[in-house]
Amino acid sequence: MTKEIKNALEEVRKYHPTVTTVIFNKYGQWNYCDDNFNAPTFSDEINESILQDASDSVEILPCVYCI
After folding, report:
1. What distance in Å separates the CA atoms of residue 26 and residue 40, rounded to the nearest whole number?
2. Which of 11, 24, 59, 65 lies 20 to 30 angstroms, CA to CA, from 39?
3. pTM of the entire structure?
4. What pLDDT, on a 0 to 100 scale, did the predictor assign at position 16?
5. pLDDT in tens, 12-40
6. C-alpha–C-alpha distance, residues 61 and 67, integer Å
Protein backbone atom coordinates (compact mmCIF):
# COMPACT_ATOMS: atom_id res chain seq x y z
CA MET A 1 0.00 0.00 0.00
CA THR A 2 1.47 3.35 -0.99
CA LYS A 3 1.57 6.26 1.41
CA GLU A 4 -0.90 8.06 -0.87
CA ILE A 5 -3.42 5.24 -0.51
CA LYS A 6 -2.94 5.20 3.24
CA ASN A 7 -3.44 8.99 3.34
CA ALA A 8 -6.61 8.68 1.25
CA LEU A 9 -8.06 5.98 3.51
CA GLU A 10 -7.28 8.15 6.55
CA GLU A 11 -8.94 11.15 4.87
CA VAL A 12 -12.12 9.18 4.14
CA ARG A 13 -12.14 7.57 7.61
CA LYS A 14 -12.08 11.00 9.27
CA TYR A 15 -15.67 11.44 8.05
CA HIS A 16 -16.69 7.79 7.56
CA PRO A 17 -14.90 5.70 10.21
CA THR A 18 -16.46 2.40 9.09
CA VAL A 19 -14.64 2.51 5.73
CA THR A 20 -12.03 -0.24 5.54
CA THR A 21 -11.54 -0.83 1.83
CA VAL A 22 -10.72 1.01 -1.36
CA ILE A 23 -11.27 -0.61 -4.75
CA PHE A 24 -9.65 0.82 -7.87
CA ASN A 25 -11.07 -0.30 -11.21
CA LYS A 26 -9.03 -0.66 -14.40
CA TYR A 27 -9.49 3.05 -15.13
CA GLY A 28 -8.24 4.20 -11.72
CA GLN A 29 -11.71 5.16 -10.50
CA TRP A 30 -12.22 4.43 -6.84
CA ASN A 31 -14.84 3.07 -4.50
CA TYR A 32 -14.38 3.33 -0.74
CA CYS A 33 -16.52 0.98 1.33
CA ASP A 34 -16.90 -0.89 4.59
CA ASP A 35 -16.49 -4.65 5.14
CA ASN A 36 -20.00 -5.24 3.74
CA PHE A 37 -19.31 -3.19 0.58
CA ASN A 38 -21.49 -0.31 1.75
CA ALA A 39 -20.12 2.90 0.28
CA PRO A 40 -20.59 6.22 2.07
CA THR A 41 -21.99 9.29 0.39
CA PHE A 42 -19.13 11.73 -0.03
CA SER A 43 -19.54 15.37 0.79
CA ASP A 44 -17.43 18.42 0.05
CA GLU A 45 -15.41 18.04 3.25
CA ILE A 46 -13.40 15.14 1.78
CA ASN A 47 -10.39 16.41 -0.15
CA GLU A 48 -10.72 14.61 -3.48
CA SER A 49 -7.23 15.62 -4.56
CA ILE A 50 -5.90 13.26 -1.85
CA LEU A 51 -8.05 10.49 -3.32
CA GLN A 52 -6.79 11.28 -6.82
CA ASP A 53 -3.19 11.15 -5.58
CA ALA A 54 -3.94 7.67 -4.23
CA SER A 55 -5.32 6.55 -7.57
CA ASP A 56 -2.31 7.98 -9.39
CA SER A 57 0.04 6.05 -7.09
CA VAL A 58 -1.36 2.64 -8.05
CA GLU A 59 0.96 0.77 -10.41
CA ILE A 60 -1.29 -2.16 -11.37
CA LEU A 61 -5.04 -1.80 -11.95
CA PRO A 62 -7.54 -3.06 -10.94
CA CYS A 63 -6.70 -3.59 -7.28
CA VAL A 64 -8.10 -3.60 -3.74
CA TYR A 65 -6.58 -2.37 -0.48
CA CYS A 66 -7.96 -3.04 3.00
CA ILE A 67 -7.06 -1.86 6.45
Report:
1. 21
2. 59
3. 0.90
4. 96
5. 999 999 999 999 999 999 999 999 999 99
6. 19
